[in-house]
Design a protein that fits this description.
It is a single chain. The protein folds into three domains: 28-137, Immunoglobulin-like (Sandwich); 154-269 and 303-318, Immunoglobulin-like (Sandwich); 321-415. The chain is built from seven helices and 21 strands. The chain has helices spanning 5-19, 287-312, 322-339, 342-357, 369-375, 381-394, 400-413, and strands at 31-38, 41-43, 48-57, 62-67, 74-79, 87-88, 92-103, 107-111, 114-119, 124-129, 132-137, 156-162, 165-167, 172-180, 198-202, 206-211, 215-227, 231-235, 238-244, 249-255, 258-263. Strands 1, 3, 5, 6 and 7 form a five-stranded antiparallel beta sheet that branches. Strands 12, 14, 15, 16 and 17 form a five-stranded antiparallel beta sheet that branches. A three-stranded mixed beta sheet has the order 2-11-8, with no helix packed on it. A hairpin with a 3-residue loop joins strand 6 (87-88) and strand 7 (92-103). Helix 4 runs parallel beside helix 7 (400-413) and helix 6 (381-394) packs antiparallel against helix 7.
């Protein structure tokens, strides 16, 4: 009896399987991936390290994302180069992508799966980057201080005011920096002055990233402060409450009060001309009247210039000129160098270098050094290199003398 065609095809397929080499079915995949969250349970706003480890065989010539990673309930900040050099074995290489995730709300927050494609000379395979889940919860209500706004700490807080002496009609530049490995943008920074004492105008805030094995963030808040009466203007102590998950308690970061001396507005006034002296050979007739006219004209011009300068020095609203920001930052750098404050000088120098790069590289104030180096034209390579040296020293535990030297180099570079 003849075998049916379908049965023949099945038997043929089984024969091929039997004849195939024993190792073919067990051939290892070109790639595999895993996702790690540290910690797996966090508070809203607390930084969570998200690691994707991809193990690929040496014969892989191309690896690409077929379905990208997504973080629907998080703010995500990538750490460039944070994974370090690949781990190598006899047959594989392991690459790691690192991000810092900040949960935006409480609950069970899902991280969807993704897919990667790996290609060798003979085949293309896809591998799943597994889904993950994080449990986020609000910080405890017990012990929560008034004014708490969701900041997770610890953080460092600093306030600078420049200059420390002004006349009425001039403005003071007030700069606040909140820094830490956390959600610094959530820090509630506010000052309050009675209307008859001073007026305060806030500029747009900025966020800078310092990337390495970890992500350190710096939030900049800037204000123009205009005194309204002469005397000593006190800028009160600034306090920012945060929750410290490591210590399991709330705490407050503080920056001390500052004072600025405010003098009366200087206005040149015309004086009565002295009676004309008898004409002499050195002093012809009518010269006294000419001198009085010149003095009055000079006083009027001085008053007009003073009023014009007063208007010009009034606070700039949001979107102020980049040139003025550079001038103010350079002034802050000079003061920090004069008093030998290494940390303040290094911070001001970093900000100055970024502001000088801004015209050629928009967004330089918030881009990391690696991104700046990749995008910088040849003419800006030197400035990016100075910034890279300074940032490495700032966050690599350099001695104060080294920080001051690099800050002086940045100060000279823009002059």
């Amino acid at each position: 009896m003849r075998a049916r065609p379908a049965v023949v095809r099945v038997l043929a397929a089984l024969a091929l399987l039997v004849a195939a080499p024993a190792g073919a079915a067990a051939e290892p995949p070109l790639c595999r991936a895993e996702v790690l969250l540290e910690p797996a349970r966090a508070f809203v706003g607390q930084p969570v390290l998200h690691r994707v480890r991809i193990v690929q065989r040496h014969e892989v010539v191309d690896m690409r994302w077929e379905t990208s990673l997504s973080f629907p309930a998080f703010r995500a900040e990538r750490i460039l180069g944070g994974g370090g050099a690949p781990e190598r074995s006899a047959t594989t290489e392991t690459h790691e992508e690192r991000r810092v995730l900040f949960p935006a709300r409480a609950g069970r927050l899902a991280l969807p799966a993704a897919r990667i494609a790996c290609e060798s000379a003979g085949r293309v395979e896809t591998a799943v980057v597994p889904a993950a889940e994080l449990v986020a919860e609000d910080p405890p209500v017990a012990g929560r201080p008034a004014g708490y706004a969701g900041l997770i700490g610890p953080v460092e807080l600093s306030v600078y005011a420049t200059p420390d002496r002004v006349a009425l009609g001039e403005s003071i530049s007030l700069a606040v920096t909140v820094q830490g490995e956390t959600n610094v943008w959530a820090a509630p920074v506010a000052f309050s002055f009675p209307p008859d004492v001073a007026e305060l105008f806030e500029r747009p805030s900025e966020l800078a990233r310092d990337m390495g094995r970890t992500l350190r963030l710096r939030g900049y808040r800037s204000f123009d402060l205009v005194p309204r009466r002469a005397g000593v203007l006190e800028i009160p102590e600034l306090r920012v409450a945060y929750y410290d998950p490591g210590a399991g308690r709330y705490a407050v970061a503080r920056a001390p009060a500052l004072t600025v001396e405010v003098s009366e507005r200087k206005v040149a006034a015309a004086t009565e001309p002295a009676p004309d002296a008898p004409p002499t050979a050195e002093r012809p007739a009518g010269s006294g009247r000419l001198a009085a006219v010149a003095l009055a004209l000079g006083a009027a011009l001085g008053l007009g210039a003073g009023l014009w300068i007063g208007r010009r020095r009034r606070p700039r609203r949001a979107g102020g000129a980049l040139t003025d920001e550079r001038s103010e930052t350079r002034a802050a750098l000079g003061q920090a160098l004069a008093r030998g404050d290494a940390d303040a000088a290094a911070g001001a120098a970093s900000r100055l270098l970024r502001l000088e790069l801004e015209p050629a590289l928009p967004g330089a104030r918030s881009l990391d050094v690696e991104e700046l180096a990749a995008a910088a034209p040849a003419a800006q390579a030197g400035a990016v290199a100075r910034l890279a040296r300074l940032e490495r020293a700032r966050f690599g535990g350099a001695e104060p003398a080294a920080l001051l030297a690099l800050a002086r180099e940045a100060d000279r570079s823009g002059r």
